Every structure is written in structure tokens, then in C-alpha cells.
């Protein structure tokens, strides 16, 4: 395959080229991620988690060996409504940086959820629907996942309860409105509608909430739906979500192949790790199998919530209420809550076990960046490339720009691929703060981190 | 050309297929739109309006004969950053309506301005930049045009002053923020920073503003830039804007040709008429030249601002301050201001002279719809097609749905094309009002219309 004379600004694959199966990176990992465990240390089995997750999703969650999972026809039909997403060549950015590097980005923001989250939301809602589930529940922070699941639930006629982190609920009424427009019920978390919410409010009546708390509430709500017809759904972290998001990487891989390109560096922002895990999947396969051993992978996280760069690799609860199973992952402790002034998203205490394992085994680098630098990169990018990015996505932009600037110094014509996960239309309060010079960085002190680490449980015989 | 076996959900032309020239529908109109005139009745010439508009744009504005204008290379380069836009087949909507009709829509919302406005903004900013202009000014209502021009001005390094209708400025702070993120200066209108603004405030200190007033302020500001280096730019109504927006129709035409389709009905929302005029351009050419005489064209406007269906076809000022030249158009009178409760956009008192002439000569139908029906259609569409539409765009959706339902009754398998001009991310206050049952329709009474008509000037020897 030779390079084309001129890469288009935006390359759209045809509908026929949308992948027909998700790729399960675990199948090609020489060492598998550690299994999910129950608080007593036992490895979680399908019956253990069947009340919480839809059956087909559990099969995907627990399967470390099957390399491909067919995308069900109805899910593929919905993918066709907004996919393929474009692979973009950032010519304007390249010119402005005066770099010999080629910069590509996979843009997932061209759907109403405004982000890549819809890829997994459609899959999860479909499997629940196909199983006869009537009610699903979830949590949302910034609101991208909640919007995506609201869209998917509306499509399959599912009743949806969303617990929205209280500070976001108050700061982002429009996010709430859009979820309500798709008929979801949105409750600020912690709330007095669940036992765990009431417990947390009793301890701290003024709590502004956290993703971990909202997860606890959503799980409890799902378990209380009569006749076992409720299930909980999560927008990141889980293996199943990384699996669904592999569509990002698979399409990127195919589009680059058409252009005769292969990335030297793949960069993604990392909150729970689903976008990153999905984007890198087929490229990481090539690294793990030895086909392309030199590719570099960079996870970019906020310095205010630095799980990969300053966290511990340990079993921890997925939720603050400590009601969920435990995952082996880089974690700041389920009790860690980033400073509420942190506007840049990616606020989860833990990290996808797949991404964590790759980092731990040396296949993936991680870097933490300051949100003031992130917003400056976001605005520069917006003016050049005409897309106002989500603050989350702008973490990847910043590091891609730094990489390209390094190429200017060294003269290397590297091919850089990064994930532009979404748009920032609902983040204007943060942009406005940045423009007024009021955005600050809150880097946790070692003491603050220690307080978070203290909430990581010890499990007899395991850790 | 035979129809393909399966139309894709979204058809993207390739970059090479982006049109290289805009199409000037006036060249094929058997009777031309009436010329722009000065208040004394004289036909406006290039020297008359040269202080206000960039030279190349005036050439486009006044030229009724040249069928194609080459798109300058730098404009084409910027188009490539976000174009071609997809031609979508609304399969989900078709199934839900159980209609034999095929419904296509051209979706212009996949760029950060959130609408088709960027197509003309890039062109206008480029021509000003190429002429050595340093400062541009404009008005914005809902904010789509302001956002688009802010993006374009940032790209060409132009200083941009935006006068934003005061009620929008207050209700849509995020719109303001996004324009400021692209370095535009945003002033609520009427303001005390211009003579015309002060005059209007003296008459009505509590004025919530209007597009017509904001235009007056923006023109005055442009004329006061030293050394003749300021120009005013307008996002709709003008012939030049309809010309630039022909890119929508040209791409739609080519994409439908690839599918072996031709629309029986073309539907667009109409505020100032630029999206409608651009969408219909090549199809209307085929009607005017007799190649496709049967195609129907439907302009959809809000019942609360019904220029095409209840307005007068007369010369009127483009602005409330009566400082601009006059256009022959369907108008409610430059003093007409729709009820501030009207949330559905499309609030301009007049209409593109091209669209007006086509309507007047019987080539185009117009229909006025209620905003409560519009929002209901918008939500139904969002749940089926996963795009939350701008309220403006949803006017076209509603009428396309009605047309498809009529096909269900008659059994006709019509091909329907409508323009989905943008997304509704910045309209959540209106959606929320609708969801709470608080959105009402304010249809102007005949007396209210008469008060507007009274502001249409009489011009000796002309009208």
C-alpha cells in the first residue's frame, strides 16, 4: 500500500466498511488483566453479577480469549445512523506548528451525545432490551455518557434513571435538559432516593457528589426494580465498554490503511479508559504480537486526578459506596474526590483494568497535564481546526501538539494519531472561566493522595 | 443512472467532489429579483455600498447573470475541514411513519458553529481579509451566525464586533461564551455604543432588541472604523449569502445523483432565506429551465413571524434603524418584532429577495407552522435519528413528516429532501420550556401586522 498523493482533510469510510465485529484486545494480551473480584476475594462469576448487568454483557466482560464479538445487526443499524466517524488530517494545526509530523485525529463528536459514549450506550441498551429488561440505570458526571444512554434508551423504549453528580447537575442544567428531552429521569447525586445516598448525605449533607457515589446509587436503584427487570450500565472502566469502543480504533486502523499510513504514536485522554482502550486496540495488538513493536502509546490524564501517574495498582471498588465488585487497576482510592474546581473532566478515581495492565506491563506510557494548559491547547485547536473540543478530548490535543513540536526540533516526520472524543458545547462555563483567567490547577498533595489510598480495601489473601 | 440497492444512512461525497464553484440561481431566473435600492429610490450601485461590503461580495451581490462563481482556493481549503456534509437517509423516521416515501436530509450541523452559517462566514471573512480589511462587524440573534463568523474571523485574523440581540445575549450566555472563545467582542443590542443604539434606547430603555436593530448598530460600527478598513457582514437575506449557501444544494444534488434519486419535494426552513435558497438552487434551476418542471418547493416559516405567508411583497429596509438600503421582499415591516416568547428562531422581518421573487412568481410554496408542533416534531426526530435539531431546522422536519404521512395515505412513494440546518445544543432552555408545557404560540393579530406594515417606507415613483 503506497501513500496517496493527498490525504483528505476528513476521510469517511463507507457504510460497508463499518466493522462488523468488536475487537477484544485481551485475547492478544500475553498477560491478561486481573479478574474482577468480590469483596471476600473470590473471583466474580456470571451468577454473582447477573443481577446487575445484562447477560450478554457479562459474557463480554468475563471473556479474555475470544478475539472478536459480532456486533448484533440492530446495533450495527444504529451505528450506521452516525458512523463511520471521520479520520481527520489536522493540516491547519500542522502548518501552525511548523512541524514535519503528520497529525491525524479520529473525531467522535459528530453525534448528539457529543462524544464516543454512544458507541457503548447503543450496545448496552440493546442487550438489555433483547433480554427483556425494562429499566436501566446509570450515573453521569459531565453528562456525555448520560446523554448517550438517554438516546439509546429512547431508541429501545427502555425506562432510564440517571444519577448525575450533584455539582454537575447544578452547573450544567442544559445537560440535564437534553437527557430529559430523550425522556430520561435525572436525579442529583447523592440523593435521598437511595439507601446509600441517604447514608452519604447523613455523613456530609453538603456533598457535591462524585462519580463513585452516583454509581452506588444507580446500582442500588437497578437492584430494586421488581421482577429482576432492572440492570445497571456503566459508561467506562469495564472490559465490555473498552470492547465496544474498539470500533474507534478499528475504523481508524482501516482509514489509515487506505491512506497507506501507520501511526508512530497513538494518544488518547484517559478518565475511565474506554476511549483510550478502544482507540489503541488494533494498534496495540500489532505491538503485542510483534508486528509493530515500536509504536508508542500515551495516555493523558489530568494532574488533578492522576490515577495512572500517581495512583496505586491495586484491587479497589468501582464505587464510593463500596457496593460493587473490585477491579485491579490504577486507583487513587474509591474515596478520592478531585477538587470541585477541576473543570477538565476525567474525574474518576480508577482506570480500566485493561489500560491499567498495559501501563503496568510497560506497553503504554502515561502523562498528567494541567488543565490551564489543556484549555489553552483546546482554544488554539478550535481556531485552527474549527472544532471546539470537549475539555476531556483536549488533553490528547495538548500532548499531540507537544509531540509535533518535538518533531519540529528533531526533524522527525512522525505520524501521530490522537482521539478527539467529543465536543465542548456543554462546557462553556469552563471555557468562560478560562478566558477570564479564573481557571486554576489543583494538584493533589501527597497527603491528599494518602487519604484517598487509605480507602483502598485490603482483601485477605489478595492484597 | 439506476438506484443503488441500498442507500447508505449517511452518504459523504469525497473531498474531490466538493463543488469548486457556487451556483448563482439568479442567472437562470426568467425574471430577476428586484434590485437593491437607496432610500431615494435609486438603484444601489457598487460605489453606494462599497463602504459597507467587501468589493468582491458586492460583485456577487449585484450580478444577476453569471451562473457560477469560482470558490477561492483558501475558502475551498477551509470547506474541506468540515465538508462535504452528509446526505442522510432517514430510515428510522420512515419506519416510524410507516410511509412509502423516501426521506433524505442534508445535515449541516456537523461543525462547531452548529449550522450551515459557516459556509458563508468563511467566504465573507476571506474576501474582507483578501481586500486588506482589518475589522468586520455583524449582528446575531440565536447565535449561529455569530459563532460561525467568529470562527471564520479567528481563522483570517480579523477583529470582529458582534451585536447580539439583547434577549438572546441574556438567555444564551453560552452562545456568547463560544463567540468570545474565538476572540470576538460581543455587545448586547441595543447598546449605548452606537448612535442608533442610543436613539432606540432613548425611545425604549427596556428594549429587548431585534435583529433589525442589531444590524443597524453593526453597520454603524463598521462605517466608523478608521481608514475605511471596516466592513459589515450579514448572515442571511442577501444574494451573496444565498450564493455561498448553494454549496448545500450542489452537494445534495450530486449525492442524490450518485444514488439515482431526484426529489419530488424540497423543503427548507426560512428565516432570512439563505439556507432555503442554497438548498433549492440546483433543483430550482431544473424547474426553471423546464428539465424538472414538477418538483415542489416548500418554505417553512414560524406562524409567529410569517413574512412569506402573511407579509407584503414590497421594498423595505433590511434594518430597523432604517440606515441600510432597501430590498424588494416579503416583509412584515422593519418595525415588526416577533413576540419575545417565540423560541423557535427565524425571527427576521423580511426575506431573501431571491426567495421572495420565486414565491411571488409561483415557483415556491410557503407554509407557516406553530412552534409547539415544531418542538414536538424535533423531539420525535431526535429520538429516531439521534440528532437533536435546532428549532429552526425542525420547521423543515415537521413539514417533511407531514408530507411523508400524506404519502402513507395516498400510497405515493415520493422522494422528499429537506435541509437539516443545524443542531439544538444551545437551545435547551426552549426545549426545557416545551417539555414542561410552557411553550406557547403567539400568532400576530391582523392589527399587530398592520402596525408592522406601517413601518414599510413609501418610495416616490417606486411604491
From TrEMBL, chains A, B:
<dbReference type="GO" id="GO:0030170">
    <property type="term" value="F:pyridoxal phosphate binding"/>
</dbReference>
<dbReference type="InterPro" id="IPR006316">
    <property type="entry name" value="Trp_synth_b-like"/>
</dbReference>
<comment type="similarity">
    <text>Belongs to the TrpB family.</text>
</comment>
<dbReference type="GO" id="GO:0004834">
    <property type="term" value="F:tryptophan synthase activity"/>
</dbReference>
<dbReference type="Pfam" id="PF00291">
    <property type="entry name" value="PALP"/>
</dbReference>
<keyword id="KW-0028">Amino-acid biosynthesis</keyword>
<dbReference type="InterPro" id="IPR001926">
    <property type="entry name" value="TrpB-like_PALP"/>
</dbReference>
<keyword id="KW-0663">Pyridoxal phosphate</keyword>
<keyword id="KW-0822">Tryptophan biosynthesis</keyword>
<feature type="domain" description="Tryptophan synthase beta chain-like PALP">
    <location>
        <begin position="81"/>
        <end position="422"/>
    </location>
</feature>
<comment type="pathway">
    <text>Amino-acid biosynthesis; L-tryptophan biosynthesis; L-tryptophan from chorismate: step 5/5.</text>
</comment>
<dbReference type="GO" id="GO:0005737">
    <property type="term" value="C:cytoplasm"/>
</dbReference>
<comment type="function">
    <text>The beta subunit is responsible for the synthesis of L-tryptophan from indole and L-serine.</text>
</comment>
<keyword id="KW-0456">Lyase</keyword>
<comment type="subunit">
    <text>Tetramer of two alpha and two beta chains.</text>
</comment>
<dbReference type="InterPro" id="IPR036052">
    <property type="entry name" value="TrpB-like_PALP_sf"/>
</dbReference>
<protein>
    <recommendedName>
        <fullName>tryptophan synthase</fullName>
        <ecNumber>4.2.1.20</ecNumber>
    </recommendedName>
</protein>
<dbReference type="InterPro" id="IPR023026">
    <property type="entry name" value="Trp_synth_beta/beta-like"/>
</dbReference>
<keyword id="KW-0057">Aromatic amino acid biosynthesis</keyword>
<dbReference type="GO" id="GO:0052684">
    <property type="term" value="F:L-serine hydro-lyase (adding indole, L-tryptophan-forming) activity"/>
</dbReference>
